[in-house]
Structures are given as structure tokens and as C-alpha cells.
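Deliverable D4.2, example record:
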Amino acid sequence: MLELPLIARARAHANSVAFRSAKTSHTYQQLLDRSAMLATALLGDAADLNEARVALLVAPGPEYVAAQWAIWRAGGIKVPICLSATEPEWEYSLTDSGASAVVADATMAGKIEPLCKRLGVRLVNVDAITSAPARKLPEISPDRRAMILYTSGTTSKPKGVVTTHANIQAQIESLVTAWEWSAPDRIPLFLPMHHIHGIINVTCCALWSGATIEPFVKFDTATILDRVRADAYTVFMAVPTIYVKLIQSLEAASPEDRTAFVAGFKKMRLMVSGSAALPASVHEQWTALTGQKLLERYGMTEIGMALSNPLRGERRPGAVGVALPGVEVRLKSESGAIVTREDEPGEIQVRGPGVFRAYWNRPEASAESFDDGWFRTGDMAVRERGYFRIMGRLSVDIIKSGGYKLSALEIEAALLEHPDIRECAVIGVPDATWGEVVAAAVVLAEGVTLELPALREWCREKLSNYKIPQRLLVVKELPRNAMGKVTKPALQTMS
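Output generated by the structure prediction step:
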């Protein structure tokens, strides 16, 4: 029988623990048995779902994976949807994908049931399925479509990214090789399970390798730190915001607690940051506190992970490393030339077996997203001493001022190094002289004031390291309102 490699590998780890929590544990065999039961329930009288779309609305944990495997083993296409989304957001995902069913746990079934009734979509409550007759499941070939994962929709309505089983396998194998996943690994799961970070990087890679996952409904700093103190994990993956929260907690902890927490972090073999740019200042703070050098990587819903700092080698703050195994990456300039020199910016384009097939029901958008077989990411980067550094999205993060291309992300990273600035956001605003000038919204630390002359001088010194011409580094304060105050967060304009 032709069986999906992810399922076959689970059989090889049948007696190992796949999920462990404070109260229960589930072996790989239990996941296989449960997924077969749920697959039988999904199929009903059908022999194969034949790529019917099935939305998944289950909390992170063993039941989520059993339901995911059930959809795949029954021949369906999984459509992960957000647990905390609004009803209109759910409706968009269900109607755009043409979902024929929603698989939900008891909690979420109660919330989405009215929508399912209105749309005429079948609702399957996994908690109500306690038995099913054994039956033969369909054979699933690797080229079948496996998942429709919706993008964030920053420039338009979210688009459904279609990946095959072969795409998913390639994404998993690339990371398992690069990051040396193995059966003894243990990792917490607190990331959303409707994003690629939680689905592929954590869950699929761990279960492909026979490792153990500890699931949480959401990230809770105190709970996670207690588990770190207990040496619960060997691998840790999070977004930059979580590392900022952990830094704040470590700094506020008693000396005794901090020592215990740091000892737990130091013992981990790998700590990864992704899903957003990691400010170099946070990278350096984390290393200073824990001795761990975070591994930053770059990827997208459409391609999985493409670039990564090395597991063994230099992990450079502010850079996302080199192409992962099985992935080809190139830079293409605005003129259409392939960038071959270092320090010359270009759009990141990616090719490889992990790259998605197409956007769901959007042939024009799919065609526009590829350049002779290379996926156009829409992100600009430069290569510096062999490593790629992301400058930002071509559409919003690249500010064209005075003939220069300035990275909003770089300026944000620099401003965050100022001791009085806690948060900031940088955008380009139209200007008759320069084309665009740089505007930054900043949130100051509690109880401090920041004088404009001092900020101007600081910007000149700090931003000069980011290859921004000195003539563009003149900081001006925006006009004040009728009360003589600038609304918070305070706005400063660099022009």
C-alpha cells in the first residue's frame, strides 16, 4: 500500500512519546490509531475524499495532529483556520477554499456551528468520535494537494497557498537535515497552528524525527520558564516578541531564579527565531543573558524555509544566513539583471521542491508570482560576506529617498538600540525634494524624555553604520496639535 512518508515514519516510532503534557502523554501509535478512526469518520461511505477541502479548527496538541493526519489519510486537503478569528474571517476561508467540512474540537465546534449551518458545511466534532469500524484507507500519492494555508493578506484579501505532500516533505527534510533533528529532541509548541512556523518547523519536523512535543494553548512566560528550569527542552522556536518577553522576565527575576532559568536555556542544543525580523539588539541581549546564540532564518508560506544561519558556524545578528539544503536562492535587481556581486540589493527569488504549486483559484496572481520558474518573494535583500541580509518588503519596507534604497527594518533596528526607545515603526512618506523621507513612530521608556537635538546627533552616528547618506539624516519634529503636544507614540521625521 502506498502510504505517506510522514505516516510511515510515525510507524517506525510507534512506541515513542509524540506528545507529552503535565497530565497525559500520547505515543506515535496512538496518533496513528486515532487518525485512522477520524479518517474513517470523515470518509463515511466514500472511498476517497479526492482533494475535498476540510477546514481544521482544533487546539494545538495530539488531537490536532490526529485530525491533520486523518484529513490527509482520507485524501482531503487540510485548510487550517485561526482559533481566535472572527466569524467573517472564518467565512472567507471556508467560502474561498470551497470547504465541504470543518473538523473542530468540542470548544470550537460550538463557536463555528452557526456559520456551518448557514453555509451548509458539514461540521465534524472530533470529541464526539469515539469509535469507527476498521477500513482500508485510500492510497495517497506525493503529488496530491495536501494543504491550503492562507497568507496574512497585507496587500489584498488573503490568498490560499496550495502545497502538495511532496512540497511539505521537501520542506521538512530540508530543516531536519540543516538543524539535525533527531528522536531525543524535545520542543514546546505554543505557536499558532494556522501558520507555517507552528505546522512545519515545529510539529512536522518533530514528528518526522520521532521527537517529543509539549503543547500549550498559548504562550505563558511563567509556565515556559518553569519548564525550562526543569530541562524540559532541547530545541526552542519562537518569534522575536517572545524573546523580548523572556528577556524582560529574566531581568526581573530574582538572582536565584535567573540562574536556574539561564542554566535551562544554556543546555538547549538549538534556539531559533523567525516569522519576523529579529533586531540585532535583542539577539545580543539574549546571548549576553543566556550564552545562547539565536539562529535566525527566513521563509514564507509559499516556500517554507529558504535561508538559515548555520547550526554549526557563525550565527550573525541581522543576517538570515545561506540557502537551506535543496533550496536555490538568487537576487534579481530592478533592472532585471541577476545580482552576482555582494552589497548590491535585489529581490529574493526562490526555486526548489518545497515551493508551493499555486494560489487557490488565482491563476493570474500565481503567474505573476513566478519568474521563469523562480518564486518572486517580494522581499529585498543583499549578500554580505556570504550571508543574506533582509532589507524588507519591496512594497512597504524599502524607502526610496534621494536615489537611495533605505531599509525601514534597518532603521527600526538602529532606533531600538537607543536606550530611551522601547518600540518604534518606520515608514516612508512622500516628499517633493527627496521622493520619500523617513518617518518613525517611537514609544519612549517609562519616565524618560528625549530631546530632539540629542536624537539628531544620535541618529547621525548610529545610522551612518547602515550606509545611509549623512545628508538624509536631519531629524525634524512634526507639528504639534492645538494643545502643544505630539500624540503618543511621539512622531519624528528624518528628512
